[in-house]
Amino acid sequence: MGKKAQAGKPKKLTPKDVGKRLNALAKNLEEELKGADLFAPLPPTEDCAICFVPISPIKSGRMYKTCCGKEICWACYKENKESINKQNEEKSAGKKLALTCPFCREPNPTADEEEFARLQARCLQNDHIAFALMGDLYRDGTFKAPKDDLKAIDCWIQAIELGSAGSCARIAEGYNEGKGVAFDKGRAFFLMKIGALRGEIVARYNIGRSEYHTFGNHEIGIRHWKIAAEAGHQDSLNNLRDIYNADGKVPGREFITKEYLDFAYRACHEAQMEVTSEEREKHRSEE
Predict the structure, then answer these.
(1) Mapped to the 3 state alphabet, what secondary structure does 255-286 carry?
(2) Measured distance CA(286)–CA(78) in Å, rounded
(3) pLDDT tens, residue by residue, 60-117
(4) H or E element in which residue 227 lies
(5) What end-to-end distance do the CA atoms of the chain give, in Å?
(6) Which range (117-121, 142-146, 242-246) has the least confidence?
(7) Tens digit of pLDDT for each residue in 257-282?
(8) Predicted pLDDT at 152
(9) What is the rounded distance in angstroms from the CA atom of residue 238 to the CA atom of residue 51?
(10) Strands (E), the chain
């Protein structure tokens, strides 16, 4: 990328600046999409850095640590916190243990400013997750970041350039709503394709909705839902089930066999169980 990006530093952006960057991004992404197999096997699921159980690509329940750049599951964060709190309760005197990162043992930040500074430092390391989160902060105006749609998009562009799948969906949402960028359904759909190609399951599901309902490409929409369902996406599985059970009253029944639907139920359940553990079930209500 040449010079390291100065994420989070004050910079006056104009809609024209961001528009130029988005056009350049789209041009580069067109090369990525050209000749790519949109129905190829999904990239592997990332594991929690602590328990090594795969982290769900669909649900929440993950936490990014700005100290070391690791993603851990919510259950490991809670187990670590409970362990430290228990040790402190058992201490009758002396200095209490500080809450620390369960991976690198760096003390947790005690103020929003410290967390924001750490996220900036991770951006300077060209960490696409950090850029995506920085964009979220500017979008929402949280953690001392002033609400700024243009800065949010700028951060998401940098995240996409570094390989982020989720940021494709974030900018696509802006195009769909005309928020921060001009309303453009075509550009939104294009970015959703890139996100799906990189493994974003919800983007895959939404592409299926557009193909099936908007464009009338029923077979293509169903193919996208099949991929998402096999990755554990329940709504995609439900759509396949409903089309099959409609017995021809809605389009696409000929693309779903009873044998495939049985397989999809098993695959979806297995994918959901793969990201489950006893500790995650224990803390599920706290996510």
Answers:
(1) HCCHHHHHHHHHHHHHHHHHCCCHHHHHCHHH
(2) 9
(3) 789 999 999 999 999 999 999 999 999 998 876 778 899 999 999 999 999 999 999 9
(4) helix 218-230
(5) 36
(6) 142-146
(7) 999 999 999 999 999 999 999 999 99
(8) 96
(9) 31
(10) 62-64, 71-73
Residue with tokens 């940021």: 167
3-state SS, residue 71: strand
Residues 6+ away with beta carbon under 8 Å from 152: 135, 136, 137, 138, 139, 170, 180
- A 10 A CB-CB count for 130 gives 26
d(CA 222, CA 256): 8
Bridge partner list, 62: 73
pTM of the predicted model as reported, rounded to 2 decimal places: 0.89
User: What is the Cα Rg of the chain in Å?
Assistant: 21
